[in-house]
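#struct-help
A.M.: can someone run this one for me? Single chain, 443 residues.
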Amino acid sequence: MEQTREHWSGRLGFTLAAVGSAVGLGNMWRFSYMAAENGGAAFVMLYVVMTLLVGLPVMLAELTLGRGSGKSPIQALVHYGGNAWKPLGALFVMAGVVILAYYSVIAGWTVRYTVDAALTGFPTEAGDRFGAIASGIPALCWHLVFMAVTIVVVSGGIRAGIERAALILMPVLGFLVIALAIYAATLEGSGAGYAYYFQTDFAAIWQTDVLRDAAGQAFFSLSLGMGAILTYASYLDRNTDLPAESVTIAISDFGVAFLAGMVVFPLIFALGLQEDVGASTLGALFITLPKAFASMGPAGNWIGIAFFVALVVGGLTSAISLLEVVVSSAIDATGTSRGKAAWICGGLIALLGVPSALSLDVLGLMDQIGGNLFLIFGGLLLSVFVGWVMPDAMDEASEGSRFGGLLFGWKTLLRFVVPVILAAVLWFSLLDTAEMVQGLIAG
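D.P.: on it. Structure tokens below:
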């Protein structure tokens, strides 16, 4: 018997949940270290360009496909394109599985840091502490704890679970990030951090690795190419303004990412720890900042707790959307109950995440495969599908919209610009993945 599909109670619930899907560790973890690695403002500028040229068009495509079909990714592709497009829907589900499997490990670190800070404070030897808890049994335990919380929320359903969590968590996240940015601005020496963040090396803009990272970050941060926005849109009413929602989500996502940089870099430079940023891709967040909080005394402990609570909240809202992709697909395919689907799917993803919890090398490889290959490939095929195959895509996207002008050039971007950019990014990501695999085999 086919189950009645749930719906959001209103626009606010959907908007906050969708923003929560986009706003997560991709903003406060991934964005910070990529900006540090790729020349600060040069990367930020490319990120904005990639969001406008690629991110927004693909997001609107996901919203259009999801609301139009009223189904999860696999069934949505079949609805408009037939069984030949079922593998693309399966790719979205697989992307959600792979990314959540390692993402929850990193989110588990943030929970552990928050709990430890509340009980014992931040250790002065932050590097040693990170090494002790980033892999092995401690990382595994907190990974399982985080997955259990995610499963509980998703099993509650759209309104009672996901929407209720978003209505509470997203205002908390916004308040914490703004408050932390204001505090960081008061620190003596913070100006050097702003100077580093805003300096622009125009030569870096033309480097292929910076371009690839910016496009990949736009997809990872906006939760594109994994069916999360598509799935959330499948619970929308027909009168929802899709172009306006896509702009709201993108602006909110960039706003949090940008503010996160205005927290991280002023703190690091004010305390003279800038030389530690490039130690590893995770260094700025899990080593340098805890070291900074420890050096600030009692006040630093409270600031640090607030920062890591914000990370936990962002990580949870994104993890919820990733699990919902898989759960919604399972419900549509088998007709099983939401609770059963959430615990079975979540449990299997938790098991898949065990290798990432035990090895940082495996985690890095899964990030490369899930975050840079699956997302980019999925976004590439989605742009082709909505641009060339989906019938009446423009009519569906414009229904309920008061800002039809925002659709100007949308289909042209999907057909000609997005595929070219994503194909180039995918090629370089494949080369990087091959190098990582060779390194793991040689090691």
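A.M.: thanks! The chain has one domain: 17-442.
D.P.: also worth noting: The radius of gyration is 21 Å.
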